């Protein structure tokens, strides 16, 4: 019997996709927000498609803030955007 793919919903566009095709954003135990390219770091996670467009949608809809139940400063979004663009070019 074949294993079902693990689906996660993008907090930007709302589309369910396979976990391996998405980027995980975590709130680590210390309360920091960071990208988790490996998908294995400890912390509460939220998923976003591998595109700037979906990260922008998540910022506008406050999807990350709802997922993590905390206020996220603009600098964090800028840092996530920069890291995501670096991953897109790889």
Quick structural overview:
The chain is an alpha+beta fold.
Task: Describe the protein's architecture and organization.
By secondary structure, the protein is an alpha+beta fold. It has one domain (7-89): Hypothetical Cytosolic Protein, Chain: A, CATH 3.30.1230. It is 36% helix and 24% strand. The protein is built from three helices and five strands. The chain has a three-stranded antiparallel β-sheet. A two-stranded antiparallel sheet has the order 1-2. Strand 3 and strand 4 form a beta hairpin. Helix 1 (52-61) runs antiparallel to helix 3. It is globular, with a radius of gyration of 13 Å. It starts with 6 loop residues before the first strand and ends with a helix. The mean pLDDT is 88.
